[in-house]
Write a structure and sequence with these properties.
Length: about 220
């Protein structure tokens, strides 16, 4: 699928995607409000902690900005490849390049060099990635997320279950082992970033989403 793409092209796409993903949206929006979001609440720079510390409007901006990083990275990948090679690329190659770019963006968001390689947990950025690649798989995962958060009010549990659902949804739609395998890597990365939440869930000390929640 990548026969026409040189290793340097792939590395370039991953690097550009990483730098886009590494823009610390939550941290920057917090700074605009005079708050270092890393020092309050859970210390995470994602939309959930932004909601707790900065409020719903700021959290919505963080959520959209983080999702847009993933969306834009995937959108640019086939464009860069076409300009680089000078010929149109196949749909299969475009899909594979997009998911590789998506992985780069999620890694950038989760391990941003701007903040000493400490970033968010990758949920919103992953949503932006799969909105570009396969909105149907994203829709299935959002349904799982919505049902879980409605029943439990645990954002972390909802995110973890949506991540587990993701590779299965992508495989059912694409029937492509390579793309599905990269999706498994993304899901495992998201779950790994939630390891402290998993410990709190097991201990019964995880915060629920709601007005009485303090963290």
């Amino acid at each position: 699928m990548l026969e026409d793409c040189s290793p340097f092209l792939i590395v370039t796409i991953v690097a550009i995607s990483y730098f886009l993903g590494a823009i610390p949206s939550g941290y920057l929006i917090g700074k605009l409000k005079g708050v270092d979001i890393r020092k309050q609440g859970s210390g995470n720079i994602g939309a959930t902690n932004a909601f707790r510390i900065l409020g719903a409007k700021a959290a919505s901006v963080v959520l959209l900005a983080d999702a847009f990083k993933g969306f834009l990275s995937c959108l640019l990948a086939p464009i860069i490849a076409t300009e680089w090679t000078g010929v149109p690329i196949s749909d299969d190659t475009a899909s594979l390049l997009m998911i590789i770019a998506g992985l780069g963006a999620i890694l950038g968001h989760s391990f941003t060099f701007w903040l000493k390689f400490k970033g968010g947990k990758g949920i919103a950025t992953s949503a932006g990635v799969f909105l570009t690649i396969t909105p149907l798989a994203l829709g299935i995962c959002l349904l799982v997320f919505s049902i879980t958060i409605f029943l439990s009010r645990y954002v972390s549990l909802s995110s973890i279950l949506a991540a587990i659902c993701l590779p299965f949804s992508v495989y059912l739609i694409y029937h492509n082992l390579l793309i599905s395998s990269i999706t498994v890597v993304i899901a495992l990365l998201v779950i790994y970033r939630h390891r402290s939440n998993i410990k709190r869930l097991l201990n019964g000390t995880e915060n629920r989403l709601g007005p009485k929640n303090r963290s």
